[in-house]
Amino acid sequence: MKKSLFCPLLILAVVGVAHGGGPQKIELPPETGSFKLAPGAEIANGQCLTCHSVEYVSTQPPMPRPFWAASVKKMMDKYSAPVPAEQVEPLVDYLVVNYGATTNSAAANTPAQSLPMTSKPAETSAADAAQLVTKYGCLGCHNATVKIVGPAYRDVAEKYKANPEARQKIAEQIQKGGSGKWGPVSMPPFPQISDAEVKLLTEWILTQK
Fold this sequence. Notes:
Layout: H1 2-18, H2 41-47, H3 55-58, H4 65-77, H5 85-99, H6 126-135, H7 153-160, H8 166-176, H9 195-206
Helix pairs in contact: 4-5, 6-9, 8-9
C-alpha cells in the first residue's frame, strides 16, 4: 500500500519541479460556433455563449420543453445568467424548436450560415439602439462604461474615434464575431442582425463617452 501511494506522489513532485512548482496557465481555444439561425438565435448567442459553447446544447440528448425550461432557470438561479425576464420564454422556445426532442439530431449541427437569414425591421433612434443591445443579449458581455467580458462601449468608441474605417470594423465585428482585438475571449457572430440594425448599433457605440 505504501508503495502504491509513493509512485503517484513522486510523479506529482517531479511534474511540479519540471514546471517550476507554480500555477499552470491553460488557454482554451476560442468559441467560433453559433446557434442555428432561427427566431430566438440572437438571444441564445447573446446569453448562452457567454459561458459555454454551442456543443453544450447541441450534444444534449433529445429532451422536451420542461428540461430546457429547467436548464435556463438553473443558469439564471445558480450561475446568475443575466437573462431578462422577457427573453426567458423566447429562449426556451428557441431551444425546444431547434434542439429539442424532435430536432436534436444530425441536422442540429448544420452551420448557421447555411440556413436562410431573416431580416429585421430598421430602427431609427438611440433609444431603439439601447433596446437592441438588450434584445440581442449584448449587455451580458458589455457595459457602456465598464469592462465585463468584452470591452466597455466607451472604450470601443475611444479606440476607433480617429479611425476612418471605424464603422466598417465595428459592423464586421458585430456580424462576424471574432477574438484577439480585446483579449482571448471570442465574441460570437450575429449574422441575423440586419444591416440597418448593425448601422444603428455602430453609430450608437461610437457616441458612447
